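STRUCTURE:
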């Protein structure tokens, strides 16, 4: 089968990264409406896994950030993902950081972004999720929530509570993003005092929503790869104390050690792609050692081939997510990872 993305990639990489991103998703929508994706792509075999009461058709997910507003749900689902994570969404719409805010480091198979939670707001996203055929047919969609840039960090919990209330009814699970480096002071929420306050507020709110809707939605925490062992162990303890269901490891890194000398390496923002692979895997290993075998971990960061996905599972992840790897490898990466992880494969 011809890899159509490989043919298009040189042209896409000649464009501004954010423009190429938007154009790719727009054309993906068009191809899905015409039924072309079913003919062009080989879908993964069913490989169901159940976690937190959710039946995932396969362990390959889309990481948050690629579809921030839920504008492309049906097209992305057609690529064969077992689940999609949409967002990060904030209570109020916001434009994000000034452009340019996305940069390719092609030789390093890496991306630097400082998007800044640009989104249309949680309510608009929820409405799009409801309209999607994937959601209407029972597809697994996680909603990733964050705080607005103008909200003082001391009031961050208010934003997360507001966003949770908005997305709760439609979300298969909810991810609390406290690890993006692109919103000022956001990573301060990973400190013990602020994280304890945030998780206490979310636990109380989830109890209220669970009682109201008669359905307790799983809650995940997304953390940074730049934490030390002591910080990771503290976060693991708080996850257990506040009954957070699982953890997503990891977000982008602020480290530039592995890309020094590359064009754009000095740009501010979070670094993703191949250079974050080992960092995220190490965090997964530390989390699994501290949390034991029961708490779900979603591994994300630097997965560019099936063996990278397998490495995350061996380290202790239950599921994996893709983002930057899709930019460098295209949609066939989904099937490759699924095939490598298939539990009935030789």
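SEQUENCE:
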């Amino acid at each position: 089968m011809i890899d159509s993305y490989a043919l298009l990639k040189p042209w896409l990489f000649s464009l501004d990264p954010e423009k190429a991103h938007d154009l790719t998703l727009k054309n993906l929508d068009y191809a899905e409406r015409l039924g072309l994706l079913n003919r062009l792509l080989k879908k993964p075999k069913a490989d169901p896994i159940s976690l937190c009461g959710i039946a995932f058709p396969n362990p390959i997910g889309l990481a948050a950030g690629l579809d921030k507003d839920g504008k492309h749900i049906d097209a992305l689902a057609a690529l064969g993902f077992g689940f999609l994570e949409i967002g990060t969404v904030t209570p109020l719409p916001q434009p994000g950081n000034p452009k340019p805010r996305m940069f390719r480091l092609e030789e390093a198979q890496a991306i630097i972004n400082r998007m800044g939670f640009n989104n249309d707001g949680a309510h608009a996203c929820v409405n799009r999720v409801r309209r999607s055929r994937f959601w209407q047919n029972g597809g697994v969609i996680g909603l990733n929530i964050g705080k607005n840039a103008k909200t003082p960090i001391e009031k961050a919990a208010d934003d997360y509570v507001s966003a949770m209330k908005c997305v709760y009814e439609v979300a298969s699970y909810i991810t609390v993003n406290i690890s993006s480096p692109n919103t000022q002071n956001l990573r301060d929420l990973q400190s013990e005092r602020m994280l304890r306050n945030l998780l206490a507020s979310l636990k109380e709110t989830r109890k209220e929503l669970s009682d109201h809707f008669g359905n307790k939605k799983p809650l995940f925490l997304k953390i940074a790869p730049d934490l030390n062992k002591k910080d990771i162990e503290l976060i693991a303890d708080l996850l257990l104390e506040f009954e957070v269901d699982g953890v997503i490891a990891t977000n982008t890194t602020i480290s530039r050690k592995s890309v020094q000398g590359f064009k754009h390496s000095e740009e501010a923002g979070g670094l993703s792609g191949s250079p974050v692979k080992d960092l995220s895997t190490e965090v997964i290993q530390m989390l699994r050692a501290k949390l034991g075998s029961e708490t779900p971990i979603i591994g994300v960061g630097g997965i560019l081939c099936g063996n990278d996905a397998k490495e995350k599972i061996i380290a202790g992840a239950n599921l994996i997510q893709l983002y930057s790897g899709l930019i460098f490898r295209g949609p066939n990466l989904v099937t490759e990872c699924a095939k490598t992880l298939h539990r009935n494969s030789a």
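REMARK: The longest helix spans residues 192-213.
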